[in-house]
Amino acid sequence: MLDVRSILSILASNIKATGLPVPAPREALYSWSEGLSIPKDGDTLLYTGGLYQLLPYIEVYSSQLAKLEDKRSGGLLLRAAGRFSSLSRIAGAIVRPSKREVEESKRILQSIVRLLDAAGVRVAYRREVDGYSGVLLYDMGLDDDFKKHFAQVARSLAQTGARTIVTVDPHTTHVLRSVARRLGLLPELEVKTYLELLAENIDNINFKKGRAGTAAIHDSCLYARRENVIAQPRLLLERAGYQILEPRRSGRLTYCCGGPIESIAPKLSSRIALARIGELADTGAERIATMCPICLANLKRASRTAGGPPVVDLSLLLAERLEA
Amino acid sequence: MSGPNTIDRLRTWISETAGRCIYCGFCESVCPTRPLGPHRGYGPRGRVAMARLVAEGVTPLSNTVVESVYTCLLCAACETKCPVGLPIADIIRAARRLYTLEAGFSAREEKGRVPAIARR
Amino acid sequence: MADAIRKLVRRLGPRKVSTDQALVALYAREPSGLQGRAWAVVFPESEDDVRVIARTAYETDTPIYPQGSATSLSGNAVPENGIVVSFERMNRILEVNIIDGNVVVEPGVRLDDLNTVLEREGYMFPVDPASSAVATVGGAINNGAGGLRGAKYGTMREWVLGVNIVLADSEGTLLRLGCRTVKCRQGYDLTRLIVGSEGTLGLVTRAILRIAPLPEDTVYALAFFPGLDSLMGAFTALRRSRINPFMLEFMDSKTVEYASRHLDLPYTPKGDMLLVGIEVNREAAQRVLKDLENLLADHGAERIITAHGVEEARRKHLFTVRKNLFAGQAGLTLDRAGPGRRIRVMIEDIVVPPSRVPEAVKRIRELESKYGLTVFLGGHIGDGNLHPAVGIVEGVDDPQVVEEWFKDVMRIAVQLGGTVSAEHGIGLLKKEGLRYDLESRGSLKALSLMAEIKRVFDPKGLLNPGKLV
User: pTM of the prediction?
Assistant: First the structure.
């Protein structure tokens, strides 16, 4: 267990300073789109929420924090970091993400755009509008900071003139679709995940024929229990030729990956991830499909530790089955 | 945005909502942190009860309470088992909010000393 | 008190002792609605730790209250000025012996977790209280728990082969009682004495439990009858047909109506309800299901929904109404309470010989108008165990009225040849009922025998004082 106050302080200060929960260059958010010809204007706008892109940075940051949990001096160091508002100031040089992970997150977003295109869904993208939803502020009980941050997000989304926002991860989806609506912060816009759009237009997608192997599904808690996204990933995987294997706890009764408390209680978090990897590996599947960047990171790490099957984002599993 | 009224309203809401818990413990069966945590405060039943105790001023916002509410995953598995349909994740978030407000915490410059909070 | 805690911290280390107010409060409550008080919670991690706790309690005259998951409904787990011993960290399954047909487990293992492990071997631990998802082995032993499968498989006392207990004496003496075999003569059956003793005689630190093979297959039928008489006719015929259902649940028509109010069901829930589950060999499944359906129809069932296997039964919502007994009562009470008011649901636990169930139901229903309470009435008809449940809105309903009502319910049970507690235990709430039961059998002396036994095991009266006797 780490010092909660310091964690909150670092988080809030980072977001206030850069709009992002961890220190990262702004281009990290949109560099995946370079070289792609995606229109800037349209009814349907892709808003990534930044979680996939920030993941490699969060990984480095979390492993730093996890080390602090072990050291006696960790608390002091962390509190010092909290006081100086930003971990990057004392650990700026350390936050250098793994190149492989940066590439993977780019591939995931590029696959999502490819899949939407294959389904005949035309999306627009604006790098200056894309950003972080502020979900962690909301989850951590920093409601005022969240509202302030989200008001900006809502304003810039409204200015694009888009009518539908397409999201790519459950946390951003939940914030945009349920939380913001409840708080009256995003009244006009329709919010859909790319999985819902793909499922609605599945007959347009031209998947390769034949079998693609087995995949165990790890449902996201928010998708399954809050956003009713349960059937879509299954339909998509099945049409793409995968044989789906369900773990002991799946669908609405899914079991968390442990990710949400990664920065507060790293040890507990990783024990939960290991327990879940055990359940997923028990299905005997060749690969494990996730649909959330946080699940992806946490389970991937746990699977490496436990010698389990590879953990792969759903979008990559689907994209590799697209007819060229 | 958040004056003393906010805190009072928050306390009342937590007290009324968490007060509906009948303490059956069914939620503990699906909570990922419960079997791996050191005590009942690492499960939904304990977290909800602590939120209420703190909101009603029965117990202070001690390190143990902070530890309990901040180790919640907000995964809401517990809500699938609750026979009275409590919005458990919302109660936990409200307790966190109470903590950030009570601790006088905000994103503005951190001034003064930062109290040590239990580390495990 | 301070002395005891200081000694415990010194002997066990600070990680295993907590005096944090907020944390201790979590161990001073149970779903019965009772609220107690404690000074500290200790978390033993081994048999040796438990011995240290018992010895320290003896030295310092400190009452100790053992706890599993505190899901008891009779007040068995509520402390009153002393130290709670929570067994949650002693939760290892030590051995699974398929050939010998037993498991060796620590007391903190949850019943469903045990079954998850046993399922992989094709076995089960059959005692399944409604709280089995959280209820622990130690709690179930001490409570003498039963469950849905009671009619066929009985209660904890049929399934505990042996226990280790620690006594609250100067040594913290450890006793290993019972055997690893079904046949076991060891003088007085102290193992059986511990089952259902509610933590008043010794601290259970380990148990040897029998296990049963999982059935090859199961079939289910849900039937609604125009009256209790026809339902009882079907029940009698089932008995005579030599079918031994593992599940025989019932709900009277009024409860069916209440409990299904907000449910979206693929059938019309109307009438007195009977839910039957039968274990079968795979080849016999269809035949038994057909026979069952015919039998129910012959006795006047108006709607019969059948299912082959538990998955189909779930899909067709066969268990939904029965499972909603508790939540249904809670919902009804919450509606009545309106916002801001707290509620409590009291689930009672009487038992009568199965042949007397119709009479019991009739008489319990008659009480309803007398007390003006909305009573949910369901139970395990196969073993005569009934769970009348009422909801209380705090600050609105008079708890005195509910207490009086329940005394009447207990009287009915005893008059019909049953008793006041089938599987929830005596705890605090049924002490008076136990006295009444024994008195009406002319056996009040049994109560003083129990008090003597308690004194022999626990001379200073430190183990879960105030409970049972």
Answer: 0.92
